[in-house]
Amino acid sequence: MPSSCCVVFCTSGYKSNPEKVSLFQFSKNEILREKLEKSIPSANLVINSKTVICEKHFTPDQIVRTWESGSSASKVTIHLKRANLTHDVVSSIFSGPKYLSNPMKERKLPSKRVLYSSINEAIVLLEKSNCIVDGMVCDGASTNRKLWTEFVVSGIKGNVKNYFTHPSNENRKV
To answer: Which of 57, 3, 49, 4 is CA-nearest to residue 28?
Structure first.
């Protein structure tokens, strides 16, 4: 088995680098292997059964080093001889130029109804500028459908409502 990492600029596994790191083979599952392969910045990377990648290219939460079983009172923890990767893992840490690394950051969800309130505010501002807003048009994408549910607009059979109350005048509909 090769003992050097396949990532460009990584010296893990070379004789010149005495540092001990875990090396992982690529998954035999074609979909997972392609996903991991695409995450590695290399134009001519060829993956075969002997290609490996080292632990330096994964975050600590993506590497499994222990096996645990039982509840808190009778919990058993076993340290594995060989570390494993979590199931659907993608490498994201690369040495070399900074643009090669793209650690996955968890995105914070926007506060609820931000788009809803922004559209209402835009309608009010347009009306104050002597523009008349009588309708809205969308392409039916999933984000737009979610927006319509916030406006309580529905196209469900038996519950069709294709308007909402105008934000600047309760007697008008948009």
So the answer is: 49
Entry pTM: 0.49
CB atoms near residue 20 (< 10 Å): 7
Summarised one tens digit per residue, pLDDT across range 19-31 is 888 888 888 888 8
Pair type for strands 23-25 and 52-54: antiparallel
Q: How many Å from the N-terminal Cα to the C-terminal Cα in the chain?
A: 67
Backbone dihedral angles phi then psi of residue 139, each to the nearest 5 degrees: -95, 0
The pLDDT tens digits for 125-141 are 999 999 999 888 887 77
CA 26, 27, 29, 35 torsion-angle sign: negative
User: Is 23 in a helix, a strand, or coil?
Assistant: strand
